[in-house]
UniProtKB/TrEMBL annotation:
InterPro entries: AGP_acyltrans, Plipid/glycerol_acylTrfase. One of its GO terms (molecular function) is 1-acylglycerol-3-phosphate O-acyltransferase activity. It catalyses: a 1-acyl-sn-glycero-3-phosphate + an acyl-CoA = a 1,2-diacyl-sn-glycero-3-phosphate + CoA. Residues 69-184 form the Phospholipid/glycerol acyltransferase domain. It comes from Candidatus Acetatifactor stercoripullorum. Pfam families: Acyltransferase. Transmembrane segments: none annotated. Keywords: Acyltransferase, Lipid biosynthesis, Lipid metabolism, Phospholipid biosynthesis, Phospholipid metabolism, Transferase. This is 1-acyl-sn-glycerol-3-phosphate acyltransferase. One of its GO terms (cellular component) is membrane. The HXXXXD motif is essential for acyltransferase activity and may constitute the binding site for the phosphate moiety of the glycerol-3-phosphate. It is an enzyme of class 2 (transferase).
Length: 240
């Protein structure tokens, strides 16, 4: 909470402008997703800088050159999406739990980036979201989905990945891009405003040919394994 307050205070004179900028993206249908993404990215970078958060991104070359793929990162906290918005060079939308989609400002970002709220308690609505994401990915949109379903609350340790979250990728036959978030829980979950560095590693994608014969639970386990391996390697290098 302290860091959010710091962000707001340091950008106080720009907050109304930034809010309007993002709000308009969700209201004006003439604004393309690319344009909306560029605006949200600009605001995100300013907020992260004001909050004394440094983003280090690795493996950008692993992001597929052709659109129509899904990022699958570990989920550490409320700051996770801001890490992607700060570092990712290509526009993406995301799936967000329904209860979080109504939070002020986040609600406007959801509208601006055409994100899709999901009600995890409603099986029918969840299936509709899976089908909607499938169709959008086939059309060339990129998505971000948290396969753990909820933040781990265990620092850099992961919860099991839910197989169902990979159904859209399987149906769309699209590239799956594992992503390792490191220390993304610190900016908002720690009661501190000290400078902090968050790392994001874009790992090599799994293409449909690689996972076509696997069950979604097996895909989830493999993506989780790759992320855990990347986190362990990064933490080991940091100790040298």
């Amino acid at each position: 909470m302290k860091r959010i307050i710091l962000m707001v205070l340091r950008l106080l004179w720009k907050v109304p402008y930034y809010f309007y900028l993002i709000w308009k993206c969700g209201k004006d249908e003439s604004i393309t997703l690319d344009e909306a993404y560029a605006r949200v990215k600009k605001v995100t970078k300013a907020a992260n800088h004001a909050g004394r958060v440094k983003i280090e991104a690795y493996g950008l070359e692993n992001i597929p050159r052709e659109n129509g793929f899904i990022f699958f990162p570990n989920h550490q906290g409320l700051f996770d999406v801001l890490v992607f918005l700060d570092s990712c060079p290509v526009p993406f939308s995301f799936v967000i739990k329904k209860e979080a989609s109504n939070v002020i400002l986040l609600k406007q970002v959801v509208a601006a980036l055409r994100a899709i709220p999901i009600d995890r308690e409603d099986i029918r609505q969840s299936m509709q979201v899976i089908n909607q994401v499938t169709q959008e990915v086939k059309k060339g949109r990129n998505f971000l989905i948290f396969a753990e379903g909820t933040r781990s609350k265990m620092g850099n340790r992961l919860l099991p990945f839910k197989g169902g979250t990979f159904k859209s990728a399987v149906k769309a036959k699209c590239p799956i891009v594992p992503c390792a978030l490191i220390d993304s829980f610190k900016p908002f979950d720690e009661n501190s405003i000290r400078p902090v560095t968050v790392k994001l590693i874009y790992l090599s994608p799994l293409y449909y040919e690689e996972y076509a014969g696997m069950k979604t639970t097996e895909i989830g386990a493999e993506v989780k394994r790759r992320i855990e391996e990347a986190i362990a390697m990064a933490e080991s290098q940091a100790q040298l």
